[in-house]
Amino acid sequence: MRIRIVDAFTDRPFSGNPAGVLLLDSFPDDARLRNVAREVNHPETAFAHPLPGDGEADWALRWFTPATEVAMCGHATLATAHVLATTGAHNGPVRFATLSGVLVATPHQDGTITLDFPTAPLTPADVPDGVADALGAEPLTAFDTGPNVGDLLVELPDERTVLGLAPDFRALGRYSRRGVIATARAQDPGRGHDYVSRCFFPNVGIDEDHVTGSAHTALAPFWSERLGRPALTGLQASPRAGLVRTELRGDRTLLTGRAVTVIEGELLA
């Protein structure tokens, strides 16, 4: 069974968000998928297999963290589309059947890949008691991101505050199903990004995610409304960091980035 490790939302190895990618003939039992994801021990491992050519999707796709299966994952979808394109396993746009419906990934000649994901519905919320202590900073506003994303999105005063966060991860797990997205406007948009974010997901076994495509389906509408533009670039300022180009199209959000394969080998067990 061939396995690849792909860094997503980056054009350089050892940055962005790593994902395991396995292209299969069919899905084995869930216990095996979980064991492989735990062994890979990256934020997500993606498993995909081809579907018959007469349906609404081309490939079935599932995502597992080391702790659980998730309903939506952007970076592992990007990584899977990258493997399909670079190995010739699929040419052109690919339609993935997932727990979040059919998601389309379109490769471009410049090496980028665009994902078409559902836009997260944002609902204003009161800043929960205790979240400021858990984050180490006082949020200006808070929003629920809906069932697909499952996070609490909080706006912080500035980029420096986001970069300086040192959260209590266990405490953050109390405030949403998956975790907390912290964001602020870019201090200097001339540096190539319009907003910054960091993502903390202790409830799915990831204290800090490196670059989170699904979170940008909430960040895109949040910042597009405030900045007055549908197309923006977000910097997820984790230690590995990565850029996500976002374009809001109503109930869909386009996420564009690059990926690079760093390891390829054989799963023997």
Automatic annotation (TrEMBL):
GO molecular function: isomerase activity
Domain of life from the UniProt record: Bacteria
Isomerase listed as a keyword: yes
UniProt KW keywords: Isomerase
Pfam family, one: PhzC-PhzF
GO cellular component: cytoplasm
Keyword Isomerase: yes
Active site: E44
NCBIfam families for the chain: PhzF_family
Record-linked PANTHER family: PHENAZINE BIOSYNTHESIS PROTEIN, PHENAZINE BIOSYNTHESIS-LIKE DOMAIN-CONTAINING PROTEIN
Family per similarity comment: Belongs to the PhzF family.
Protein's recorded name: Oxidoreductase
UniProt source species: Streptomyces ruber
